[in-house]
Structure formats: C-alpha cells, structure tokens
Amino acid sequence: MLTDAQLAALAFVRALGSERFDTDASITINFHPDRTAGDRTVIEGLLADGRFRSQFETGISNGGLTAYPGGDRDRWEERMFGGAYQRPGVSPIDRPKYGALNVFHHPDGAAPRFGSAFLRLRPAVLERATYTFGDSHRDPTEFGTIDAFSAVLAGLERHWGASVLSGPRSPRPGRALDDYVEAQVHGPVDLATDVAALVLDTAFAGTPCASAAVSMAERYGVAVEWREGFRIAPRDIPPDFRGPSVCVLAGHLCDLYERELVNAELIGRAARAVAATPGEWARWGSSAEALQLLKYLWHVLVEYGH
Q1: CB atoms closer than 10 angstroms to residue 143
Q2: Average pLDDT score over residue span 230-234
C-alpha cells in the first residue's frame, strides 16, 4: 500500500511520458555495507530493521548530505514529484529510496559510485519507481515510470546509441560513476518482500559483513551472492583523477594495515577509524575532509581497479 503522497509522485512523473519499457533489468541499490550509522554498520542496521531506509531517515549517504527540509535533496524532490512530498503530514519514512536501473546487467550494480555492495530488487518494484536519465542532483529533464518510459529511453539512446539495448550482455563491470538511469523507489524496500539478493564484494569474505549477510538470508530469505571486487596498488592510481592526496592516502592505508592492494574492505576500515578516532587522522584535515578523500579513493577503485 502506497501513501497518497507516493501515489501522487508516481502520477506526476507518469504524466510526463509514454510507452512502456519491457525489460528484465532490475533496480539495484548500491551501498557500503561496513560504514557506521550510529552504533552499528549499515548491514547490521539492515539486518535489525528488515528494510532499507532513505537518507531522510538515516542522515547518512555516500552522496551529498542534503536530505532535510529546505535542503538540496528536498528541493529537487519538490521539482521532480510536483511537491507531493512537501504536503502536510508527510514523514521521512514516506520519502523515496534511491537506486538505479541496471539496464546492462553489470555485475557491480547500476551505480557502484555509491558502494561496493548492492541490493537487487524484485521485478514488482519496477512498477512503483520513477526514473531519470542521470542523477537527480544534476536537475535532469528526462523522467519516466516503467509504463511511461519514452523520455528516459530517448536519453539512453542519445547517450549510447539507438541499438544499445539490443546488444549482447557483458559480464564486465560497468564502473558507472556518473552515467546511469537513477531509480527512485516509492514505498518501502522490505528485505523479505522486495529484495531478491544481496551482492557482496569478495573483499568482505570472512568479515562481520559476511556473518550479517548469512543472518539476513536466514531471517528474510534474501539470496546472498558474491562478486569479484575491485583492487588497486597505490602506485597504479592516476594522480590527476581525484587529486594527488588520494594517492598518498592509498599508500598510507597500505602501510598502516600492512596490505599491498587497496580494496573496499580497507577503505571501509579506514572510514570507521576516522569516525572513531578523528584526531589520529588530522593529517588529512577534518573528519569530513578525511572521509571525502576516502570517498574519492573509492571512486578511483571503481574507475581503475582491477
């Protein structure tokens, strides 16, 4: 059951397009499973709550932290959904959850810039999502629903060519940092009913994230899948991609944790350390600045990792 605000948001976007998009693509929600939210990690929060929460509820994100009344995310949602979520009585739990449509079935999910793990949602969720060609923070102009997808499809074809959707699937990672079809899921994302699988980076094998994933499968019936994650040596990081400080930080992490390669687990370990003991990371600036560098290091891993 969707709320009146959620139904109004879907109707507003549906009116902007036409033509149903028949696809076997799934919505994926990429996230970092080992980041902390309060006194627990994100994956522990998923296990305890049984649902994926929006930034309006959690206050954390791997993008911009602007989910509050009058913030950037609030204003762009007002534009995108005709003010449906600014109505009296709308609560944070009602807000949409953000993922992306994995049109090309990439093994790293549709939008890996937001995390190494992802939830693959069930096909029924496609019907209560809205879509934009490009990330919503960029003020996109091409909107649609799965049964009114014409504008988004035109964006896809303009960017990748008219024959892009008829080509063979590739098992190669998409490495998408900017170009993807964003999906805004209206209504809940419940593990037991809406999530088909949790896909984890192999860097988390044998860690508490893996244990939480096993418990999630037992409790909610979510399949757990593993994919080969990205890794890179500090010497192989291009200094002009996210700045030379990222190269230096990568070398520092490998020295600190006695590793040869940077991977998702190493970056997450450092992010938790920054949150727990910020004074020990003062070399990299404030906590926010250090975490931003770690975010950039993750972007390097997505773009150039092997």
Answers
A1: 24
A2: 98
